[in-house]
Amino acid sequence: MNLLETRALTASYGQFRALFGVDFRIEPGEVVAIIGSNGAGKTTLLRSITGILRQTPDMVIHRGEAIGAMAPDRIMQRGISMVPEGRMLFPSLSVDENLRIGAQARRGAGRWVLETVFDLFPILLERRNSPATALSGGQQQMVAIGRALMSNPELLLCDEISLGLAPVVIRDIYAALPLIRESGAAMVVVEQDIARALSIADRVYCLMEGRVTLEGRATDVTREAIHAAYFGTQEKVQP
Amino acid sequence: MIWVETVIQGLLLGGLYALFAAGLSLVFGIMRLVNLAHGDLIVASAFLILMVVEFSGLNPFMSALIAAPVLFGFGYVLQRVVLNRVLGNDILPPLLVTFGLSVALQNGMLELFSADSRRLPAGGLENQSLNIGLATVGTLPLMTLASAVIAIFLLNRLLYATALGRAFRATSDDPVTASLMGIDPKRIFALATGLAMVVVTLAALYLGMRSNFDPSIGPARLIYAFQAVIVGGLGSLWGTLAGGPIIGVAQTLGAQINPEWQILSGHLAFLIVLILRPRGLFPRARD
Amino acid sequence: MQAHVTTRTRASTIAAFAAIALILIGFALPAFASRVMIQDMFFILTMLMLAQLWNLIAGYGGMVSVGQQAFVGIGAYAMFGGVLIWGWDPVAAIILGGFAALALSVPMAFFAFRLHGAYFAIGTWVVAEVTRLLVAQWRALGGGTGTSLPRHVTANIWGVDWVADLFDVRQAAARDILAYWLALALCILTIGAIYWLLRSRTGLALAAVRDNDEAARSVGVDARRVKWMVFLAAGFMTGLVGALIYMQTARISPDAAFSVTTWTAYVIFIVVIGGIGRLEGPILGVLVFWGLQSAFADYGSWYLFALGVIAIVVMIFAPRGLWGLVADRTGLALFPVQRRLILPER
């Protein structure tokens, strides 16, 4: 059974339609990449899944239950955790507190506790008492990922985690993702960096102008198919 | 010597103002909401305590203990049902709603309790005094100041050393991201207002025992509370604890010169601070 | 025909003609209306002006003042001062009231502009309280208990005799008529001036400042200057209205003239219930307010209680007021300030 799926998901901001009938699914333990250019609807898709954008209930199904109209806090308590775009750390809280607040709605025991997050990102242990926003961009991204892990999610949504970071920092952060995967969490990785996304994903979706233009196994899709789906130079490609 | 005593009386009066202000400061710090009905809620709480005293025959302290959970519940519901609906980027709606609440409360109390001045029976406590060397001070004013210090200390502990306080601060920073952490911002705001009402109960207890009150005095208490918050620095509870006594001392010093100048000199002290330190004396580093 | 930008709508054109007709009827009203009706109209017009002025600074300028009673009070007291101390005619002294309020609005703006949002609101309130307490020390004008305009003054106000002869009424009634005419003229002036301001470049700047202070600054709007200008202008006008109101009542006290309930709370309710941020709102609001007051004022405090509750309910369920509901249903705009692009027909 799918862990989570969206069925004919539509979304709009006022007059502007951001998603047109998106069907998306992810299985337990799977890593799915969502690629697409700016404004393709990637973030809107995540906002709909996490409940920040309320939908009609059956547009989003989690473990067979319609959750499209649920509030974000209740969706999070079901084990769906988000690393938001722009990191969105709490400036009034220290690094330590930012991580702890991720465990506010923790469900039972699991691999991720403060110590294992510090093992994953050792630099955070040194900075644990600093105000979160005093850290460098890469370190802040680590806090954001750690914060999302602290609730031991079964689905982790990562929105543009490489955005605005130096390549060497991106490499460090991406090095942590396989370790997170080992802990059993399914992951949705939203990226503009296609190669980066494909390197860790089982499957890939490409969005363009609010529609899915490509869906397939990461190992099967060709460069040309992705290029077409990303830039819309051809008709929809069926890999 | 008279001046030393005047200053001490002012400090003690300031304890009461700090109590008025603590609830306001807490709510502002968490949801950037200024409740214009704050003063009227203090008066309404004093009336509730008085009702408990009259029905149960208990002393005001015990009665306040009974009133506190009721007022917590009232604050929770008020926030959930009314104030949460108008919170947002536009500051006008919450302002106008709490202003409406203020007028409704004042006039509702006027109908229910009449315009007569009332007082909580403190059982002779109001006449007791202590000699602290420099001056003889009333026991009740001293208890007020001590309660203010304790209340603000506890609020600070709650904010900075508990999971709930962490959730308060996170929600204050960014309610949307807080909801991604499994926190329901509306519930957090409701808890904060409930908590503020518990502090209001404490303020009402001392207000009612120390002086007469009637339905019309709320707005003036709001102004004192507000001045204490601004003078102390927005969002800083310790600042609020300092701000109350500054207004208190200004008032007693003014009254010492001319009894008609008590309130006026409090206002003037506030305006002077506003000129010299627009962000208050102890502003929070980030706002 | 070229494309052009206009604010005119068909409804606004009709409204303009209706307004001219209403104004003519308004000036002729004393010929056939009772004294009570003239007094009611005076009340409606003065409250409408206060509401429009508060709407200008709060609804359009985003400056939520709870200290407008300072301008009403100082305007009224300056008028009394002009009459009782310097022997001016009350009508001339109204102008003095306006300038006194203007003078007060400078320090008030100086203090209050250091505060934002709700703290701005209470800051203005504190300045109003300070003004009240200082005025209560002014022994020449009765200190805390207040004073009245003596009979020989009220009987000899410019034009009263003429009005009394014209309508064959007694002097007291003639004074009411005179006050009513002044209120009507001042009201037309106020609404006209606000409407003109909102349609001017300054009006656009004001809207920009309200919506986003910093963004407005970044496109070259001098936010501070615009705010100062509007705040001072509203203070001046509010002072004129205050002086006019107390010329009519001829009796003053600090508590009444600086009453936050009468001159600010009621005014805010009028604007909120009618619809904030639009010129039509206060007009509808003042009529509703007057209707409610006529019908329920006997219930005293319960009436005010209900008024508070109504304001809360309106703010939650119809945040743009009753006129907002009307405008949403019908698209009606009597005083359009929105610029619309009209394309040439092909």
What does this structure look like?
The complex is a heterotrimer of chains A (239), B (287) and C (346). Chain A has a domain at 4-82 and 153-231: 3-Layer(aba) Sandwich (Rossmann fold). In chain A, 33% of the residues lie in helices and 25% in strands. Chain A has 9 helices and 10 strands. In chain A, the strands form 2 sheets. Chain A has a 6-stranded mixed β-sheet with strand order 6-7-8-3-9-10, sandwiched between helices. In chain A, strands 2-1-4-5 form a 4-stranded antiparallel β-sheet, with helices on one face. The radius of gyration of chain A is 17 Å and the shape is globular. Chain B has a single domain (2-114, 137-276), classed as Orthogonal Bundle (ABC transporter involved in vitamin B12 uptake, BtuC), CATH 1.10.3470. In chain B, strands 1-2 form a two-stranded antiparallel ribbon. In chain B, a hairpin with a 4-residue loop joins strand 1 (129-131) and strand 2 (136-138). Chain B contains 11 helices and 2 strands. The mean pLDDT of chain B is 92. In chain B, helix 2 runs antiparallel to helix 3 (60-86). Chain B has 287 residues and is mainly alpha-helical. Chain C has one domain (4-342): ABC transporter involved in vitamin B12 uptake, BtuC (Orthogonal Bundle), CATH 1.10.3470. Chain C has helices at 10-28, 35-60, 69-84, 90-112, 118-135, 151-154, 160-167, 171-199, 201-211, 213-218, 223-249, 254-257, 260-274, 280-296, 301-317, 321-330; strands at 4-6, 147-148, 251-252, 340-342. The longest helix of chain C has 29 residues, at 171-199. Chain C starts with a strand and ends with a strand. Chain A binds chain B through residues 50-52, 71-73, 76-77, 81-82, 84, 88, 90-93, 97, 100-102, 104-105, 147, 151, and chain B through 163, 166-167, 169-170, 172-174, 176-184, 286.
- What coarse outline of chain C follows from CA principal-axis ratios? globular
Largest sheet of chain C: 2 strands, antiparallel
Share of residues in helices of chain A: 25-40%
Task: Give the SSE string of chain C.
Answer: EHHHHHEHHHHHHEHHHHHE
What portion of residues of chain A belong to β-strands?
A: 15-25%
Under the CATH scheme, the architecture of chain C is Orthogonal Bundle
Report the β-strand fraction of chain C as a percent range.
under 5%
| N- and C-termini, Cα separation of chain C | 9 Å
> How many strand elements of chain A?
10
- Counting DSSP E segments of at least 2 residues, the number of strands of chain C comes to 4
Quickly count the helices of chain A: 9
The helical percent of chain C reads over 70%
Structural class of chain C: mainly alpha
